[in-house]
Every structure is written in C-alpha cells, then in structure tokens.
Amino acid sequence: MIQLKNVTKTFSGNKMAVEALRGVNLFIGEGDIFGIIGLSGAGKSTLIRCINLLERPTSGQVLFDGVDLASLDQKSLLNKRRSMSMIFQGFHLLEQRSVLKNICYPMEIAGTVKKARLGKAEELLKLVGLSDKRDSYPSELSGGQKQRVAIARALATDPRVLLCDEATSALDPNTTAQILDLIREINRTLNVTVVVVTHEMTVVEKICNKVAVMENGQIAEQGPVENVFLSPHSRIGKELILPKTSAGNALSVPGHMPEGACIRLVFQGQSAFEPVIANLALECGAAVNILSANTKNIDGKTAGQMILQLPPDAKSELHVKTYLKEKNIFFQEVELYA
Amino acid sequence: MPDIPVNTLITGVFETLYMTLLSTIFSYLLGIPAGIILYVTGENGIWPSRPVNQALGAVINLLRSAPFIILLVAVLPLTRAITGTTIGPTATIVPLVIAAAPFVARMAESSFKEVDSGVIEAAQSMGSTVWQVIYKVLLPEARPSLIVGGAIAVTTILGYTAMAGFVGGGGLGAIAINYGYYRYDNGVMLITVVLLVIIVQLFQALGMRLARRLDKRHMSSFT
User: What's the DSSP call for residue A65?
Assistant: First the structure.
C-alpha cells in the first residue's frame, strides 16, 4: 500500500548538511499497524513526514497505491493527504476553535457541507468517547483528551492511513494504554492502516504487527514484531529489545564481566508454563545464573525472555544448549561488553 | 482659566480620533497582508521565497528607519496627489499610514510567529492549501495577539498625530503647538496632554479586554 524506495533526505544547513535518511526501503501493507522505532535523531520523524510529503525526499520514491507522490501536482497531493491523516506528540489542535469545530476543520477544507460536517463530527466524538466535550476548548482538556480529539479530527476525512508521530510520548502510561487501545480499535473496525513512530518498545509490542528498527537514518532491521522480538540481529535492535537492568543495559555490566557465555531465551505459548530453568538445572546439573528476565505481551501473545549466564566450561555449555534445542526453546547467544 | 474656546478642544479631540482611527484602519489594510507575506515567505514559512521576503523586508526597514517628522515633510507631494491638500487631518492620514503600516506589518509578523508551527504542520497534513492555512488557521490562531498589537499600534499612531500638528495637521497636537508652544499657554498644553492620556488609556484598556475575551485559551498562559 505504501512503499518507500531508496528514500534519502538531506537537510542542508549553513555550515553542514545533515543526512536524516540514507536510503530507506519500506513496505507497509493494507491493514498493518507498522511500528518505526529508534532513538532520538534516528530519522524516524523525518521518515513519517516523507510518507505524506510534508518533507520532500531528496531522492528516492514514495509510492502510495503504486502512485509516486512526488510526481503529483499540488492539488492531487493535497487530495492524497486527506486519505493519510496524521497525529502528533504535541496534539496540535486549533486553540481558538472548540472541540467540535476542530474536528470539522479537515471537512471544511475538503468542502463538505456544514450539516454533514457537524453530523460526522458528533459521530466521531462519540467514537473517541468525548461527546460531552463538544463545546469545550483545547486548553480545557487533559493530554489524553486532546489526543482523542486529534484522533477524531484525523478520522474526519475517512482516511485509509493514520500516521502517528510519537503520539503517546507526552502521555502517562495509563493514558498511553488507552490511546493505543483506541488506535488498535480504529485499525480493526475501520480498517485503517496505521504507521506508528515511537522510541518506546512497549508501544510497538502492544499494538504493532510489523516493525522497522531505525538507526542513523537507515533501517537496521524490519519484519513481523514476533520475529524481530524473537531474534533481533542488529545492534540497535538488541539494545531496544533486550531486557534492561537497573544499571541500564543488561549487555554492559561495567567491571563485572561474567566468565561464562550468555544466552537469551525466549518463551512463547506453552513453554511459558514449563519450569524450564528448574529442569535445566536438574537434568544438566548446570548452575546457570539468571541475569535478567521479564514477560511481555507481543501483538496479543504472551512472551517471556531471560538472559542466562552459562557455566564457564565448554562441556556444560553444550549440554545446556542441547537440552534447550530438545525442548524447542528458542535461544541466541548474546555478547557482553565490559 | 486657559484662553481657549471649548468648541476648539472638542473639534481637536474629534480630529485626533478621526486621524487615528482612519490611519489605523488603512495601516492594517496594508500591514496585515504585508505581515502575512513576510511570514509565509520566511525561511521556515509555508511558501518560502527569499527574494520576496528580502525585498519586502528592505522596504519596511527603510520606511521604519525614517523619523516620522521627516517622513511627514518628505511625502508632501504624495499627500497632495492623493488628498489634494497638505494641511488638515485628512492630509495627515497619508504620512501616518506610510509610517504605521510597516510597523503594523512587523507586529503582525511577530504575532504569526507566535502561532505553534506544529498547528500549521497539522493543517498542512490535512491537505490545506496555503490560502486555507492563512485564513482558517494563521489569522484565527493569532487573533488575540493581533488585537494586543492593535492596541499598541493605535497608541503609537495617536502619538504620531500629535507630531503632525507641527505641519498643520490639526487635532489635539496642533492645539498643543499653537496655544501651548507658540503662545506659552501652559494651561492649554496641560489640557491637551490630559486628553491624550485619557484617549490612550481607553484604547489600551479596550484592546486588552477584547483580546482576553476573544482568546479561547482560557486557563492557559500565552505559551
């Protein structure tokens, strides 16, 4: 549905040029909730703005239903934008307009007649659960309510795509969860394709079915969330996905370099109910050291992950690995940096 | 008791109000579009154009740097061409507008810059044309700030009208000069000053009140 082909974007400043995107290739399918995750400055906000051409790529193509957006004239581009709505971290509501009038705005500029506008706006307010706030002004709303209004406004032109630029980053965890539920509901009931830009792995885990991990203006890896979660292979992917200790990253425990090899186990479905570690210790006689463990909800399925340090001798290491393979438990070796 | 007929003072007040209000209206008719052009053609504007922005900016800076009392005399031929005369309140409106419009343009530009650029971006993401962004987003969102600017512009123009009294402009300024300066009548001088202060206070209070009333950001500050 949306395809990015070798997209680059360079911002030329007075002294130096900044390469925000360096050859990005992406495919977002109809009905996907596609996550784009990365740290600040990775280029993800620039990337999402290239999808609706708020930023024009320096080179490369942005295809929407096979049509190269850069080739369109201004009028057709504005039309296309109406089928690709966007919500933002800062909500960006019109402060001088009431909630209802905010939702009417996109229909106003699209030339919808007044009666139809108001009817649709009321309907959308109901969908986001804010019917009682129709005559309030944005300054009277909480952050979560503002984002609901922004979502209602984004849906006013019956878009096929909803672009979310750090839409939950300014919200507390509870409100974030509610907004994400709403976005997923919209995806399912209205069949709106969603693109989510975020720096929080929890957001991707909660609603996305596909993910692209970005670093330095490039896609480090991409695929179904389950696969990327199961075995992240890029450095940045590991950093974002592997469990963190209180000291920061589990992969770097300064001055405390464990001697044995470390492996990361992922439990999914049934294996989450078996006492794997206890059995492992009993059957292999290996005293493994649990460095970190947690469970997550990935795309609606429970998954657990654990980082184990194996005994330093090669024999018990092999023993443990064979045992895990027999039990069909996914594991990968991870490196530890001092 | 100062030696001046009450009627002369009343006429003076009306002439001052007439010059001030008409000049303000014309200054805004020219200044707001100029402010919009400055804003949209600016570096991060929605229709960036360096040549247009720099040319307009240069004209505005040029007019703003000429002292009003000099501008007043320098544009006399233009004043005569437009109004047919160079004295009286109506003639004064020409130099007043020439002096005030660039000032209004800069103030409007700064009001527009206060509008959150994210809101503009959101409007663009919804498929707004440049024109729709201007009259449906930029102008309404900047309205409270524009009105506060309006109150400042009115008082500045009022100050200019007094200066116009020196070259036969009429109004309270002319009275203050003719009676207070040439005849050393300090009483009349004092009365004109008091009247001017009252008029300024009224405009200022009215502007602030209107701005507050029309601002829908009830509880939040100007951020």
Answer: T
Q: What is the pLDDT of residues A145-197, one digit of tens each?
A: 999 999 999 999 999 999 999 999 999 999 999 999 999 999 999 999 999 99
pTM confidence score: 0.87
What per-residue confidence (pLDDT) applies to A230?
84
Write the DSSP assignment of A267-295 as a string of letters: EEGGGGGS-HHHHHHHHH----EEEEEEE
CA distance A127 to A117: 15
DSSP string over A222-235: EEEHHHHHH---SH
pLDDT of residue A272: 60
| DSSP calls for chain B | --S--HHHHHHHHHHHHHHHHHHHHHHHHHHHHHHHHHHHTSTTSSS--HHHHHHHHHHHHHHHHS-HHHHHHHTHHHHHHHHS-SSSHHHHHHHHHHHHHHHHHHHHHHHHHHS-HHHHHHHHHTT--HHHIIIIIIHHHHHHHHHHHHHHHHHHHHHHHHHHGGGT--HHHHHIIIIIITS--HHHHHHHHHHHHHHHHHHHHHHHHHHHHH----SS---
ipTM of the complex: 0.87
* Fold topology of B6-220: MetI-like fold (1.10.3720)
| Separation in Å, CA of B144 to nearest CA in chain A | 9
Distance from the first to the final alpha carbon of chain A:
44
CB A196 within 8 A of CB A35: yes
Domain boundaries in chain B?
6-220
* Confidence band, pLDDT 50/70/90 cuts, at residue B48: very high
CB A338, CB A252: distance < 8 Å: yes
A93 contact residues in B (CB cutoff 8 A): 119, 122
B118–chain A Cβ distance below 8 A for any pair: yes
pLDDT in tens, A87-100: 999 999 999 999 99
Find out whether A149 and A131 touch, Cβ atoms under 8 Å: no
Contacts of B144 in chain A (CB under 8 A): 96
Match 């929080």 to its residue by tokens: A200
Q: How big is chain B by its Cα radius of gyration, in Å?
A: 20
Query: Which tens digits make up the pLDDT trace of B59-99?
Result: 999 999 999 989 989 999 999 999 999 889 999 999 999 99
B220 touches chain A (CB under 8 A): yes
Amino acid in position B124: Q
Residue of A96, A103, A145, A195 for testing the chain B interface, max B β-carbons within 10 Å: A96
CB-based contacts of A147, cutoff 8 Å, min separation 6: A87, A91, A167, A168, A171, A175, A179
Assign residue A292 a region: left if phi > 0, alpha if psi is -120 to 50, beta otherwise?
beta
Q: Which residue of A has its CA nearest to B122?
A: A92
